[in-house]
Amino acid sequence: MTASSLTATWLWIPPAPFGVETDMATADRLAYALKWELPVLVWLAGCLRLVASIRYRSDEDRPGAAYGPPSARLAVPTAVLQNSLEQTVLAVGAHLILAVVLRGEELILIPALVTLYLLGRVMFAIGYAKGAAARAFGMALTGASTLAAMVIAIVLLILGR
């Protein structure tokens, strides 16, 4: 799904409405990618806010993670936050490296990767409480989009970009 989505984006989505210009310097490409990372960080902030809100309202959880395991109400949001933090670090890093080696209209891949990441995170969060099988699609989509960014960057670096 990730490969077909990225290919379709590159072939059929016009980059101009997404702010892509044909001749962007490295600093401009990085700035472009950073702007697209805002929804990724908003997702992470939302996960953090949910955990903080539950902890604030729970006498059992208020002392903090160092003083005991999370309550049943806090366990899933905490797990989603932890996993989202890990995935965000990898995704943002991969997107920024990719932005350095992409050229012109190829930058349309950045918003596509961010969209796949967010879809994966939402599906992961929705499925988490239902077990590993229910969250697997979201985890796979998140991981595959980040892996795709890394592989594309590696290939382009090998090709001399």
TrEMBL record:
<keyword id="KW-0812">Transmembrane</keyword>
<dbReference type="GO" id="GO:0045055">
    <property type="term" value="P:regulated exocytosis"/>
</dbReference>
<feature type="transmembrane region" description="Helical">
    <location>
        <begin position="107"/>
        <end position="129"/>
    </location>
</feature>
<dbReference type="InterPro" id="IPR023352">
    <property type="entry name" value="MAPEG-like_dom_sf"/>
</dbReference>
<dbReference type="InterPro" id="IPR001129">
    <property type="entry name" value="Membr-assoc_MAPEG"/>
</dbReference>
<feature type="transmembrane region" description="Helical">
    <location>
        <begin position="135"/>
        <end position="159"/>
    </location>
</feature>
<keyword id="KW-1133">Transmembrane helix</keyword>
<protein>
    <submittedName>
        <fullName>Putative membrane protein YecN with MAPEG domain</fullName>
    </submittedName>
</protein>
<keyword id="KW-0472">Membrane</keyword>
<dbReference type="GO" id="GO:0005765">
    <property type="term" value="C:lysosomal membrane"/>
</dbReference>
<dbReference type="Pfam" id="PF01124">
    <property type="entry name" value="MAPEG"/>
</dbReference>
